[in-house]
Design a protein that fits this description.
The chain has helices spanning about 10-30, 45-50, 75-80, 80-90, 110-125, 135-140, 145-150, 150-160, 165-180, 190, 195-205, 210-225, 230-255, 260-265, 270-280, 285-305, 310-325, and strands at about 1-5, 35, 60-65, 95-105, 125-130. It has about 325 residues and is of the alpha/beta class. Strands 2-3-4-1-5 form a five-stranded parallel β-sheet, with helices on both faces.
């Protein structure tokens, strides 16, 4: 049977693969699982392992990493593509073989990808693990025991604190389980490693609404991070990064950049870009105003790092910059 785990969420792919490996190991033993990497290992070994099923093993799980291959794969690796594809075609329907292809970010234009996709439609399954929005992340969190017992508000807060990174969310859920086992649940929220950029983005999103709500969030940021150098430095980095993203999205809104250029420049999911664009539209934030804001924050950050501003004055200065946005 052929299974393909693919797309951009490498952590979710690895999580799924590990679950399958654990189940297979329990039933058939560790010797019945083997891995092969496209472009690094010899094809003859792959052929030998596939041919050994039925002779030495009742069932076998064979994991092929990196096939179908990603863009910019080196030429020497591409030369073995037809041989690998031939072996997969030959054995993919064998009920004694669990053939798992692990292919993060494959090149969908290639013959290898198209042929594998066709095979899964007739005898197999292709699962695509791609970036999720907040609603889908909330549903995903509920797949785990730690997430199921959380209230919707707690899950939303976790997403805001950690960002959309599934790996970080999973780690915080495991931390929550440990805290619960040790009767420390009430202290769990203090143990979360918060994503400063994500928290800053929550504040920047609020700029599209009422001034009082946005400034309340700014106050929470200040309360959390002003008292430590690391907290202040990381949050200032978040403000600068957030303003850069807002500027790039504003340039796209003014048709200086297209959607793909904006996505490539920011590295963000289209969902996040759309939310930022909504904020810009609500506050009539032009690229000129955002350049002024970015330069003002950069200047304040420089003065802080060179000793001309104390942490308290730095935060007060940044607050004044954002209040200025509401008066223009």
């Amino acid at each position: 049977m052929l299974f393909v785990l693919t797309w951009t969420e490498e952590f979710l792919i690895s999580l799924k693969l590990q679950t399958w490996k654990d189940q297979f190991w329990t039933k058939y033993g560790s010797d019945a699982i083997c891995s092969w990497t496209f472009g690094e290992d010899d094809v003859s070994w792959l052929a030998q392992e596939l041919g050994s099923v039925g002779l030495f093993f009742e069932k076998k799980m064979l994991i092929i990493h990196g096939f179908p291959y990603p863009p910019k794969t080196r030429e020497s690796a591409l030369q073995m593509s037809d041989d690998v594809l031939g072996l997969i075609t030959q054995y993919h329907a064998d009920p004694a073989i669990m053939l798992v292809l692990v292919a993060p970010s494959p090149d969908k234009r290639t013959k290898a990808y198209k042929d594998i996709e066709l095979l899964t439609k007739t005898q197999g399954k292709m699962e695509k693990f791609e970036g999720k929005n907040e609603r889908e992340r909330d549903i995903w969190l509920q797949e785990f025991p730690g997430g199921r017992v959380m209230t919707p508000t707690q899950r939303k807060q976790l997403i805001e604190w950690t960002g959309m990174d599934a790996w970080r969310m999973y780690n915080e859920l495991m931390k929550r389980k440990t805290a619960t086992d040790l009767w420390l649940y009430d202290q769990w929220t203090t143990l979360i490693y918060r994503d400063f950029h994500a928290t800053v983005f929550v504040f920047l999103d609020a700029l599209g609404g009422e001034k009082e709500q946005a400034m309340k969030l700014f106050g929470e940021l200040r309360t959390q991070h002003e008292w430590t150098v690391d907290g202040t430095m990381m949050t200032m980095g978040g403000f600068l990064w957030g303003q850069k993203v807002m500027l790039l999205v504003a340039l796209a809104h003014e048709q200086w950049l297209d959607k793909e250029q904006t996505k490539d420049a920011t590295g963000l999911h289209p969902f996040v870009i759309a939310k930022t664009a909504s904020t810009i539209k609500k506050r009539w934030l032009t690229s000129t105003r955002l350049v002024d804001t970015y330069e003002a924050i950069l200047d304040a950050d420089y003065q802080y790092k060179t000793g001309w501003l104390s942490p308290s004055l730095l935060w007060t200065t940044i607050q004044g910059i954002y209040e200025w946005l509401y008066t223009q």
